[in-house]
Structures are given as structure tokens and as C-alpha cells.
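Tutorial, part two.
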Amino acid sequence: MLNTVLILMFGILVLEDIVLKHIVTAVLKPVGQVTVIDNFFYLTYVENKGMAFGLLSGGRWLFILFTVIVLGVIFIFFVRSRTVYTPLVLKAAVILVAAGAVGNLIDRIRLGYVVDYLHFVFFGHSFAVFNFADILVTCGTALLCFYVIFGDRFKKKGNDKK
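Running the prediction step on this input gives:
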């Protein structure tokens, strides 16, 4: 039952990313930028051909290959988690990373770039423009770090396998 809920959560998050990027492309692309909170938060249409902060621009196939490998490892993790106890926090972290990775992978395959649109300015300096999928990957990674640091608190007591 839990794995079904996690798969459903994965699907909803990927769908949400697709819908948001579709709306952004339809509404924001023609105007370029919309101010939400002046000098702090903007919606800015960006076609990112690189990774975070536009690094390695033009490495589309490298990013696609890397993402497919990561998704393969995640698939193996979930197959293995069916027979070995795996804490919910770890499964949730992996689902968040996978959903974000798939969201950006769809863009890279379909468009050749990732649609970014969330743009913050801090103390007069522009921060990277990013998207919902990036937030999923970041939150999943943070949750994974939390698990690595405090994981012993999630150890299952007893003989339950799931």
C-alpha cells in the first residue's frame, strides 16, 4: 500500500512540474519576466541548456545519460526496498529526487533545454533562476542528508520487513 502511495506521489509531482512548465511557457515566454515582489521575487522565463546556474551549457546528452543512470539506481533501490526494511523518510527523499529528475529529463529530451522560471534577488544580487523540479531535487537531497545524519533514529524495531 505504501509503495502505491509513493508511486502516486511521484506521478502527481511529475505531472505538476509538466503543467507548471506548460503554463510558464504559454504565459511567461511572450513577456519574459513578471515582477511578483519588486527587488525580491520575479517570474522569469529562461531556457537553461546547462545544469544548475547554467553550468556545462550544451551538455544535454551528458545530463540525459547521468539522469537515466540515477533513475536506474533509484529503480533498483525501490525493488530492493520491497524485501528489506526501508524507512519512509528515505523512500520519500528518493521519490522527491526522482520526480524532479524526471521533470527536467522530460524537458531535456523534448525541448533540448530545461524551462526555469523562479527568480529571486537577494541584497541586489540575482540568484539562479530555477523551477519546481529543481525544488524537488533540492528538498529530496536535503531530506536524504537529514536521513544520513540522523538515520539511526529511524531504525525499525522488531522483525518487520516493511
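The radius of gyration is 18 Å. In part three we will examine how such features are distributed along the chain.
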